[in-house]
Amino acid sequence: MTHPTHNGRNGNGNRNGNGATRYEARDPDARFSHDGPLRIAQVAPLYESVPPTHYGGTERIVSYLTEELVDLGHEVTLFASGDSVTSARLVPIGTRALRHSESCHDPLAAHLLLLERVLQEADRFDLIHFHCDYLHFPLSRRLDVPSLTTLHGRLDLPDLVPVYREFSEIPLVSISDAQRAPLPWANWQGTVPHGLPVDFGKLSKGRGGYLAFLGRVSPEKGLDRAIEIAAKAGIPLKIAAKIDRNDRNYYATVIRPMLRRKGVEFLGEIGEADKPKFLGDAFALLFPIDWPEPFGLVMIEALACGTPVIAFPRGSVPEIIEHGVTGYIVDTAEQAVRAVGRVSHLSRTVCRATFEARFGVPRMASDYVAIYRDRIRSPRAVMPRALAPSYQTAAE
């Protein structure tokens, strides 16, 4: 996998003498039987750059997928924030990711502009791959170009049911089987687990003598439980986590007082370059979540470093962690404490081998390309809207 360079190699790379990109016309009917290199648009959310400088799971996955597709010879255009870095052709929306822009007061405005840019160029692509939830659904319904939407968030919220019921023909991809459980009747094209570059991290010995927590400071991520587990296990805990604006009160009232405990070290938000050492030196990763986690990228980041995971059985956890092999799946903090005592029985070599076999970028890209080709060959093979059950919600 190559390292991206901003506006470097052009993934749609036909250039004429003055440096402008030359697009070749394509017979629209030929699109649907095309078996060679594909012209693919990747549409990312604008909250973080692609890849993100620190926290940002969706944008990282979009980056990994985009770079791998370019390496495979496909012609890729990335619609993303202007500070994104890619070897594909970049269509920048704004100058900076919204989370780092002090002038952003309405993120919807930027995303509306994003969709307009996609619409302006839609005929240039064999397929448009969206990663921005459901905002584009009215647009996708009216496009002649095949599209696909990967959903990266939770789907168990009642407000979502009327939306997905109305747009039940939209082709979707889940990132775990557990994620799709609230909407089993949606037009699922497949489940594609996330993947990391095979060279992310390396097999490490875990000799740092601490447990690790990596992610976001929020009630559903269970940082307070992680602190309690580490304290009862008698092992130091290092915390690498970001604090969102919405979680500042939780941090101030619940977490900050707990940081005064002996053995607890709060490092703040760390970038991708710092994760392998942080995770590789850890005795184990604590993942005591209390929500239906759609995937949990940090779990495969830990496995890539050979680090076992102790996690609660929410959402995708049972699909990623094999109990007694790559970690322990527990129901309570007390069980987690006992699992810490058994971590030394697990093979870090097996953890790393599991990552390489199941969670590499090449596998993820191959899965997506197979779905792309199915969509391109049968662009209108979608579920009729009438097949979606007529659920009612309290809001209706």
Could you characterize the architecture of this molecule?
With 396 residues, the protein is an alpha/beta fold. Residues 1-33 and 382-396 have low confidence and may be disordered. A seven-stranded parallel β-sheet has the order 3-2-1-4-5-6-7. The radius of gyration is 22 Å and the shape is globular. The chain has helices at 57-71, 107-121, 137-142, 160-166, 223-233, 248-258, 275-280, 297-304, 317-320, 333-340, 348-358, 361-377, and strands spanning 39-43, 75-81, 89-93, 127-130, 147-150, 172-174, 188-191, 211-216, 237-242, 264-268, 284-287, 309-311, 327-329.
Describe the structure concisely.
By secondary structure, the chain is of the alpha/beta class.
Number of domains: 2
CATH topology of the largest domain: Rossmann fold
State the end-to-end distance: 48 Å
Proportion of β residues?
Answer: 5-15%
Provide mean pLDDT, rounded: 88
| Largest sheet, spatial ordering of strands | 3-2-1-4-5-6-7
Summarize the main sheet: 7 strands, parallel
Instruction: Sum up the overall morphology in one term.
Output: globular
